[in-house]
Amino acid sequence: MFRSRLTKTISTAALCLSGLLTMTGANRAHADDVPVIEITAKRFAFTPDKITLKKGQTVKLRLHSEDVTHGFFLRPLKLDEEIPAGQTTEVTVTPQTVGTFTTICDHFCGTNHGNMNMTIVVE
Amino acid sequence: MNRPDRRSFLKFAGASLGVGVLYSAYPAALSQGEAGGLFAALGQANGEKVAPFSFVQLSDAHVGFNGPPDPLGTKALERAVDMINALPQQPDLVLFTGDLTHDTEDRDVHVQRMKQFQEISRKINVPVIRHVPGEHDAGLDGGALYREFFGESHYSFDHRGVHFVALDNVSRAKPEVGAEQLAWLKKDLARFSKTAPIVVFTHRPLFDLRPDWEWFTSDGDDVMNVLSAYDNVTVLYGHIHRDDEHEIGGVQHYAARSLIFAFPDPAAVAGPRKPLPFDKDHPFKNLGIRTVSFDGKAHPGSHALSVEDIELTAREFRGINGVHQLLRDPQV
After folding, report:
1. In angstroms, rounded to a whole number, what is the distance separating the alpha carbons of residues B286 and B194?
2. Per-residue pLDDT tens for A36-55?
3. pTM of the full predicted structure?
């Protein structure tokens, strides 16, 4: 009985954590314990198209291109990364400004390049 | 030398052709008197006297693009050609500030688009036509195909005492000029005096107009630092598909409208960039001719501009709203 309740509690906690991670797109797969957010770039969209960060909290963004070279540019967070074709780029960021920001691909990647963006919310 | 009041000689006349802007260095009538003395002094300082002339800027024709939002195809470009040819005084130059064609991964199709652009633009009855690439011309192949058709993507030339500099901020795929081109720019400008009139034409804005819409050049500050050694610099650009005028650090930056569709005012839109919707009842709206007249009659004693909207949003402007930075008071 106790074991079952404990399992349920752990499962519920895991679900809550899972929900939180899904919301932020983050996990803690790295030894340095910095939350990691996986972002995939593929013409002409980022997935996920929106993530939420916390002001002052350091996170690592793992940026992976599934096709051609893309950029990842957001002036207010000083992000200006290149994601080579088929490769992964990592960047660590500690946002200091609260707001909703549009991150763009700034490496021309084709005809709909101008619409390739995602939202980063800093709370 | 009696230095004329700035407004008394900076009578640049212009007719924005929607996609294009006609700039006049200064009307011939102003080459006499005080202004004539000023330009003579400039000529002594710079080695060549500025002579009256005008030029047109066209931008963002996107040949090959076929809506939405704009199903006009090449009609606006063809219309602009007709308008330039109908000008009462033919300009000396036409400057195309990029996105002559729309991109495609099919090289053969892109070749056809470049050829189509050339076929249309060759009908302009102007002796000299110069270009810089936009990202849709050069972003996918580093500018290789563009250079086959139009030659080098950065270069300079002199015309009637004005030094023109073509800068490429698209061929590296990212919005940047790059260290190599910056070094070339310094070398290119080294022979000029501080007062030399310089017109830079490029595709993207050289300042942070709206970075989250990719309306910037990442090393634009480095470019402007090089140009800051000169008193009379004007920057012309395209990319943003709308009129814009900014003065930054004494340099005037002008954007020309597009020949395909328009973008909204960046100050009025918080989120991502979206084109203005096509208006089938006014197909050339935001692409037509802009006429602004320098008209003392409308406001006696002032230098106010009267703006008239006529059919197809056609307007014309004359007066100091042209390249009034092209020749500033040189303090000679």
Report:
1. 37
2. 999 999 999 999 999 999 99
3. 0.79
